[in-house]
Structure formats: structure tokens, C-alpha cells
Description:
binds S-adenosylmethionine
Amino acid sequence: MSCRDRPLVDAFNRRITYLRLSVTDRCDLRCTYCMPERMQFLPRKEVLSLEELHKLSLAMIGRGIRKIRLTGGEPLVRRDVIELVQALGRKLGDGLDELTLTTNGTQLVDHAEALAAAGVRRVNVSLDTLDPALFLELSRRDRLTQVLEGIRAAKEAGLQVKLNAVALKRLNQHELPDLIAWAHGQGHEVTLIEVMPLGEVDGDRIDHYLPLTVVRDELDRRWTLTDSPHRSGGPARYVEVAETSGRLGFITPLTNNFCAGCNRIRVTATGQLYACLGGAEKVDLRAALRSDSPDDGLAAALDQAMLIKPERHHFAIERGAAPAQPRHMSLTGG
Ligand code: SAM
């Protein structure tokens, strides 16, 4: 087996099969826990072209990546993203098992049908609240109606929609049961996420950090939760909610580390491969792509990534402390 098709296995014997590919760092929302209002975005010339994104994805598929999730920033604000989805969709069943997207939903009305036609079967939509005033406060933009229409359009296009909500103390904390019940009523699975210390924001995240252990206790008092063996290939752990007949996931990067089963790598829109969401270890795929021998360069960079992937992240949220990593989730790709 040549080094261009050797499977990706890291130093801890974890097989890497899942790529999260950020196609832009730009976003049409400004979620307070994600980025400051005056976010400094990357100059466009630094961002990989569509051809480069496609080429590196193919190289990854050749090395055993079976699932690609396009993310950002907001992937659907990139004008040519559907062309990339169509190109990658042609690899489904030919090396690629699944092509998905994480989106804030604001542009789904325009793109849901094209995504489905290209072979996307599931999308994750981030939705922290159903309250228009809180949506505006959290995202600094008045777009809840578009998001809800986007979710409906996705469903009508035949896409399975999973909702992700960041749990935020005193912000959406009291509303989480209603959000979950609504989502389950619409046939959507929901996953709750703990806020992570990534990049500077305007306030202190600790003010709104809500451990999911607390949420689980609150929900346990209200509903009958049964641990589920279901796994989605990611870090979420699930329960079934008897009263709503739906599935609820918990992603707990702070209260319960899940790195032992990590199967993923992340690539930013500038082609920096981060071996861990919470770590600084990276290799430069753009330099490889733009070198005289891109295929060999990419193969060597991917080998290097396997050597440097850390065993685990070390997140801690402490008052006044600097973020675990200076880069925002919108850069690495959530
Ligand atoms: N724009 C797309 C979206 O909204 O889903 C994709 C990118 S966004 C960065 C991906 C996810 O990361 C969203 O669910 C968002 O709420 C979440 N996120 C952003 N910053 C976060 C943080 N510091 N901690 C936890 N989740 C965060």
C-alpha cells in the first residue's frame, strides 16, 4: 500500500475516518458565545478555492475518510458551496459513506433541495432558542423566522434534521425542556452542547457556562430518561425521553471527556489541519496543495497529522482565564 492510500491511524491507534471541513470562517450570525460582534474575518485570498477543497477531500477519502461534514463559519454563506457538495456527493458510495453539513439554517430555504439532490441525507441545524427576543440577544441578528423556515424546507426536501443547542446558564436554561419537546414533536433529534473556551468573546463565557450534568438532573426530575446505546459516530451520548418519544444527546467536552473514541480531524478554510478541536497541533495542507508536488505533500502532511494528534483536549472554564485556544470555533469549524 503506497503512502497515498495508507489508512489514517494516530499514535494512540485511533482510526481517523471523519473530516470536518470548514469552507469559510464567515457567518451571518454573531453568536455571543462564539465570536465578538466585531469579528475579524480572514482575507478571502487566504481561503482555499473550491478546487483545493475538493482536491484535499479526495486525498482524505483516499486515506480512509468515510464521512465529511461541511461546516464553518456558516457553510451556506459561501457562494460556491453547492458546487463542492455536488462534487463530493459524486464520491458517495465510492469511498465516502456520508456527506453532511452543520448550518445555522438561515439559508436553508434556498439550498435544502440542492443539498438533498446532491446526496446529503442529514443536516445539523444549530438552534439555541425558539424565543425571537432571546434569539436576537444570543445571535445578535433577528433571523429566527428564517431559521424555522429553513428547518421546515429541509424536512420537506427529505433531509433528516438534527438540532444542536448550546446550553447557556440563565439564557436558554429555562427554555431547554420546551425546545426539546418542540423538536421531538417535529420529529427532530436534539443534542445539547456545553459551551467551550475557544477564542475571545465580548463577555466572560463562565457567566453562562452550564454543565450538562445540571441540565440532565433538571430533565430527570421532569421526564423519564433512559440511557440509550445509540451512537452517531461522534462524542454525543444519548437518552430516550419517554414523554416526548424522542432522542436527546449530550456533548460534554468539559464535564465528561470523550477523546478516547475520537475519529476526527478538522480542516480550516485556509487549509490548516487541526488534529484536535481543543489543541494547537496542526499541519499546513494549503502549503502542501500549492507546492510543486501536491499529492506527495498532502500524503506527508496527513502522516504528520497522525503523529501529532494529541491523546485528549484539556478544556477548563475559569473566571478571567484565557480561552483554551485563541482561535474561535468559527475558524476551526464547529
Ligand atoms: N454556522 C454553523 C452552525 O451554526 O451550525 C456551523 C459552524 S458553528 C461554529 C458550529 C456549532 O458550534 C454551532 O452549533 C455553535 O452553536 C457551536 N459553537 C460555537 N462556539 C461555541 C463554543 N464556544 N462552545 C460550544 N459550541 C460552540
